[in-house]
Design a protein that fits this description.
The protein has 139 residues and is mainly α. It has one domain (10-118). It is built from 5 helices and no strands. It is elongated.
């Protein structure tokens, strides 16, 4: 399935469905306040996690190590902040999952494991060949 279809059609439809369901349970005003509350709290935690990641990256740079985890973590925190700004409960849930360091590490390991197995499949393709030396004197 095309990922653009999922992002531009299915995600807003899911968000609208969840907003209607939650609004039916707790009321329209409470739903709007809940959306603003999750955005504000999420952005506060995104700022805090971003500063912690920046500090950890600087420590790695001072120790002459490449801060690869911190770079990827910083990008996921930025994505989490973006998802928390978008009004909706599903994107807020995914954004909060990306803000928690424990779940972020699990998602990184799953992603790296998938990429490693994809690379292993492409590396195991060997070609058997025989080299024939045809040394003729062209004189």
């Amino acid at each position: 399935m095309n990922p653009f279809f999922l992002i531009f059609i299915c995600l807003p439809a899911l968000e609208i469905y969840l907003l209607i369901e939650v609004g039916g349970q707790v009321g329209a005003l409470n739903t709007v306040l809940l959306i603003f509350f999750t955005a504000i709290i999420g952005l506060f935690f995104a700022k805090y996690q971003g500063l912690q990641t920046l500090k950890a990256g600087m420590v790695n740079l001072y120790q002459n190590r490449t801060p690869i985890y911190e770079i990827v973590s910083g990008a996921s925190i930025a994505l989490a902040a973006f998802l928390l700004i978008i009004p909706g409960f599903f994107t807020d849930f995914i954004g909060f999952l990306l803000l928690i360091p424990f779940t972020r590490k699990i998602l990184f390991k799953l992603t790296l494991r998938k990429k490693a197995t994809d690379n292993d499949k492409s590396r195991n393709k060997t070609i058997d060949a025989e080299i024939i030396e045809n040394n003729k004197d062209d004189l």
